[in-house]
Design goal:
By secondary structure, the chain is α/β, with parallel strands linked by helices. It has one domain: Ribokinase (UDP-N-acetylmuramoyl-L-alanine:D-glutamate ligase, 3-Layer(aba) Sandwich). The protein has helices at 29-37, 55-58, 126-135, 148-153, 155-164, 172-179, 184-192, 233-248, 253-270, 277-281, 284-298, and strands at 3-7, 11-17, 20-27, 42-49, 66-67, 71-73, 79-85, 92-98, 118-121, 141-145, 167-171, 198-202, 208-212, 216-219. The strands form two sheets. Strands 1, 4, 5, 6, 9, 10, 11, 12, 13 and 14 form a ten-stranded mixed sheet that branches. Helix 1 crosses helix 8, helix 3 packs parallel to helix 5 (155-164) and helix 6 (172-179) crosses helix 7 (184-192). The longest helix has 18 residues, at 253-270. The structure holds adenosine monophosphate. Adenosine monophosphate binds at residues 9, 11, 13, 27-29, 81, 97, 123-124, 147, 149, 231-235.
């Protein structure tokens, strides 16, 4: 079975939402991605934590499917992010962000990777993503995630990353921002011209849209009545997508469509509780049942 090498942020998140509040809980793009993808495939973490990241925090990565041997502990503090959701929980603002040890992180991809392994560049600095890509130029499939912060602060490097990846996952507002277009279809097509062979646009509670040169494909979100905390839903979606693709080792358009259903299912679990807690509770039966439910829900 292929493994997934994943690089991204490990954070302490503080969240304000109409549904409640949380201070300094475990988060980060790599955390959510790994906890979702590890339900399907082996994930090898390339990330950094500070001296304030203790053994109890580490236990979150205790699954046999998560390899932490390339996780670095540096002097200083772990990345911190604070965000607030508006009454419409599809809307979020970043209140503060401190990169801390993530700022000078020098990623080291494990030496024994091969061309069958998958690569996920989770939300993080495009420079870090480039450094990671350079260490793993031969991979089975490379998926990239990014956000407005990096589009705004390092567009030049991001453009280079886009030229070298197979796919991009991005949310709708960011797709419009990156392309400079207001129509989502024009935006998706324009991003395809920047390099990736596929672009998956996440639309929060409205689902996800796949752009490729062959076809377009759309999925609704799994209907969840009580969304408690949408933080990490995007990374979790990507975890379900990559986890499923790597488990089969092959990437075809048909498999990408099924992978998007798994991504949707995993994201629906993520939002049910604050932080990544729900991803730690579920098992393969929960995932399978919700997959079947979703297929029933979307099939005429
Ligand atoms: P999502 O809700 O999927 O967009 O991801 C939210 C997660 O991304 C949170 O756990 C944050 O710690 C993390 N995050 C927020 N801003 C950044 C950033 N600029 N770079 C990397 N990770 C970030």
């Amino acid at each position: 079975m292929s493994s997934i090498v994943a690089v991204g942020s490990i954070a302490f998140d503080s969240i304000e939402a109409p549904t409640g509040q949380a201070e300094e809980i475990l988060g980060g793009s790599l955390t959510y991605f790994a906890l979702a993808a590890s339900h399907f495939s082996r994930v090898r973490l390339v990330g950094v934590v500070g001296a304030d990241f203790n053994d109890e925090h580490m236990r979150v990565f205790g699954s046999d499917s998560i390899d932490t041997s390339s996780l670095e502990r540096a002097e200083g503090e772990t990345f911190r992010w604070r965000g607030r959701y508006l009454d419409d929980m599809n809307q979020r603002e970043t209140l503060s962000l401190a990169l801390n040890v993530f700022e000078s992180f020098d990623p080291k991809v494990p030496k024994d990777v091969d061309a069958n392994d998958f690569l996920f560049l989770a939300n993080g600095s495009p420079k870090l993503q480039l450094q990671t890509l350079e260490q793993m130029p031969d991979n089975a499939f490379c998926l990239l995630d990014t956000m407005d912060f990096w589009i705004e602060n390092d567009r030049a490097d991001l453009q280079q990353v886009l030229e070298r990846v197979d796919g991009l996952v991005i949310n709708d507002e960011e797709a419009k921002f990156l392309s400079g277009e207001t129509n989502l279809i024009t935006a998706g097509n324009k991003i395809l011209d920047m390099g990736p062979k596929i672009v998956i646009v996440k639309k929060g509670e409205h689902g996800a849209f796949l752009f490729s040169t062959y076809l377009h494909y759309a999925l609704p979100a799994y209907p969840i009545e009580h969304v408690n905390d949408p933080t990490g839903a995007g990374d979790t979606f990507a975890g379900g997508v990559m986890g499923y693709l790597a488990r089969g080792g092959r990437v075809t358009i048909g498999r990408i469509k099924r992978a998007m259903i798994y991504g949707t299912v995993m994201a629906s679990f993520c939002v049910e509780k604050f932080g990544p807690d729900r991803l730690l509770e579920i098992d393969s039966t929960d995932i399978r049942d919700r997959y079947d439910d979703f297929v029933q829900f979307t099939t005429p």
